[in-house]
Design brief:
Layout: H1 14-26, H2 31-44, H3 59-70, H4 73-91
């Protein structure tokens, strides 16, 4: 990203600013690079798996996250019901 790229002023709560700063530090990025990476991932619809919240996920869990994010609200509700029924039948 070049310094000639358009700039945007942004207001954040002190708490959110601190979270962004910590995340940028954990990911060895500048605050700007952290915000840009998260916005690009969010707007592209691809999972944000390079951030600390996804640490510890195995490949199957990452695949589930990717599927979940492609579902609409009705599909998500149906899937959750199905999983809940499966867990309840295994507990019996």
């Amino acid at each position: 990203m070049a310094r000639t790229d358009p700039q945007l002023k942004l207001r954040l709560s002190p708490e959110l600013k601190e979270k962004v700063e910590k995340s940028a530090d954990n990911n060895h990025r500048s605050i700007n690079a952290e915000i840009v990476q998260r916005l690009e991932a969010s707007l592209s619809g691809r999972p944000i798996l390079g951030v600390p919240q996804s640490e510890g996920l195995d490949d199957d869990e990452r695949a589930l996250v990717a599927l979940w994010r492609r579902m609409d609200e009705d599909q998500r509700r149906s899937w959750l019901l199905l999983l809940e029924r499966g867990l309840n039948s295994n507990a019996a």
